[in-house]
Design brief:
By secondary structure, the protein is mainly β. The protein has three domains: 224 residues, Jelly Rolls; 146 residues, Galactose-binding domain-like (Jelly Rolls, Sandwich); 83 residues, Immunoglobulin-like (Sandwich), CATH 2.60.40. The protein contains no helices and 38 strands. The strands form eight sheets. A seven-stranded antiparallel beta sheet has the order 1-7-16-9-10-11-12, with no helix packed on it. A seven-stranded antiparallel beta sheet has the order 3-4-17-8-13-14-15, with no helix packed on it. Strands 18, 20, 23, 25, 26, 27 and 29 form a seven-stranded mixed beta sheet that branches. A hairpin with a 5-residue loop joins strand 11 and strand 12. It starts with 13 loop residues before the first strand and ends with a strand. The protein binds calcium ion (3 copies). The site of one calcium ion has 8 residues, from loops.
């Protein structure tokens, strides 16, 4: 939720109201606030969600505030959960961005606190797991993160990445806490309900006033220095087996000829990519298991990294025109040894392509794979990693056949592709003659009285630029440039 518009989107969120009474007065923590659904406590303003604590009587409470959650509207097992937040400030304030299971039997079913803060400690946030046996034998494992700056001044990114085997906490994309299932890293350990984080959890956002966590349970001690908890967005990234539909990434079609960015692989876990571990090791750009980092090649952007054997990514592309293309693959490798193959629509078009050493992980080189046939229309390209150990930034499809001159381009449109015997030129009507020259004007091949389909024995030619002249039975001439 980007919190655009003027009101909270009730298709995504519900209000939780009251003071917890009668079953759980003070929400089990001696909290002092009464949660309302009033616009005074919860509103959308300038693209942000604002939860505001106010000193006003409601019921027997001395403060009002807000709490929203996604129970029954959105929940997920595993993935990345992040929010951009500017914290409130003041003694007794307790903002939280956290998660509970849909079938909640706290604490046995677990709790994930992505971010909590004490308003009298504006530089420190906590990441915490709650678990264990029924109260009072419940446990929690918490880690403080000191940002060494006042977190009520600016927006910062608070995130967890949750996989079947681990939960990791990030502050501005810097890892500060890791918990693992096997071996079980929880401290204190629990003998019951060892790792309950394997089911659907929903998201909660609230601003409590007072309570045990804040060290303040008297209304007179509370200071509403900056009483607003501001959330710019909450984003959730999914990579479970249930989201397996392969669709293009982004809204712009990737065209051939043109550049395909490595990091713009298709959406759709398991059908659009395979990565050897479940997290994005670089923690940037997009959150799938594929590993992405900032790139210092010309033009910047991002590259894929942490590439290991048998990983792969797929790209849905549109070839605006068919023909022959050189593929320029942009890679860097500290020690070489990498190898890929390029597949188009499930067939290997390149054979093994070796990635040389470039000395460092960000010293970039271009590897050219020559004269690959691509027919016009949509295709799925897969980059399959035979051997890892390199980074890659993009691949570029450049046409190796260019129409130079035609005295009637609309009347005949020969297609040129690479075949085993050499260049194949096909045309709807018969072609009268085909000649191939090098740039010095030397004629290497001359064929007369031809069919619609014609092979040119180009395999023996050395690399370079050639000119092909075609004449049809109307004596119309077409001149094509071919780069071998
Ligand atoms: Ca990964
Ligand atoms: Ca990887
Ligand atoms: Ca790139």
């Amino acid at each position: 939720d980007e919190f655009q518009g003027t009101t909270l989107d009730l298709k995504k969120w519900a209000f939780q109201t009251g003071d917890g009474c009668p079953s759980l007065c003070g929400w089990g923590n001696s909290e002092l606030q009464y949660y309302t659904n009033s616009n005074n406590n919860i509103k959308i303003q300038n693209g942000n969600l604002i939860i505001e604590a106010r000193q006003e009587n409601q019921g027997s409470s001395k403060f009002t505030s807000g709490k929203i959650f996604t129970l029954g509207k959105f929940s997920q097992t595993y993935g990345r959960f992040e929010a951009s937040i500017r914290l409130p400030k003041g003694r007794g304030l307790w903002p939280a961005f956290w998660m509970l299971p849909d079938n909640n039997d706290w604490p046995k079913t677990g709790e994930i606190d992505i971010m909590e803060n004490r308003g009298d400690r504006p530089t420190i946030t906590n990441g915490t797991l709650h678990y264990g046996s029924a109260w009072p034998n419940n446990q929690n494992d918490s880690q403080e993160q000191d940002a060494q700056q006042d977190l009520s001044n600016d927006f910062h990114l608070y995130a967890v990445e949750w996989s079947p085997s681990a939960i990791r906490w990030y502050f501005d994309d810097v890892l500060f806490k890791t918990e693992t299932k096997n071996p079980n890293s929880l401290s204190p350990t629990s003998t019951d309900n060892l790792w309950p984080w394997n089911k659907n959890f929903h998201i909660l956002l609230n601003l409590a006033v007072g309570g045990w966590f804040t060290g303040t349970t008297n209304a007179t001690d509370v200071q509403l220095t900056k009483p607003t908890f501001e959330i710019d967005y909450v984003r959730v990234y999914d990579c479970s087996s249930s989201s397996s539909n392969q669709i293009p990434y982004g809204t712009n079609t990737i065209n051939i000829p043109g550049r395909i960015e490595a990091e713009d692989f298709d959406h759709g876990c398991f059908s659009a990519f395979y990565d050897s571990d479940s997290l994005n090791q670089g923690h940037v750009y997009r959150y799938t298991p594929v590993d992405i980092q900032k790139c210092s090649d010309v033009g910047g952007g991002y590259n894929l990294g942490w590439i290991t054997d048998q990983e792969w990514t797929k790209y849905t592309v549109n070839a605006v025109s068919g023909g022959l293309f050189d593929i320029q693959f942009r890679a860097a490798s500290q020690s070489g040894g990498g190898q890929i193959r390029i597949e188009i629509d499930n067939s290997d078009v390149s054979g093994p392509v070796s990635i040389p050493s470039t000395g460092t992980w960000q010293n970039w080189t271009t590897i050219t794979v020559k004269n690959i046939n691509v027919t016009a229309g949509n295709h799925v390209i897969r980059i399959y990693i035979i051997k890892g150990g390199f980074n890659w930034n993009y691949m570029e499809f450049n046409s190796t056949i260019t129409m130079v001159k035609s005295n009637n381009p609309d009347s005949w449109k020969p297609t040129v592709r690479m075949a085993e015997e050499g260049l194949m030129i096909e045309n709807a009507d018969k072609i009268k003659s085909i000649e191939l020259f090098d740039l010095l004007g030397k004629r290497h091949i001359m064929n007369f009285t031809l069919q619609g389909s014609n092979y040119l024995p180009t395999n023996a030619l050395s690399s370079g630029v050639y000119i092909i002249r075609l004449i049809n039975y109307k004596d119309e001439v077409q001149v094509i440039k071919f780069i071998k």
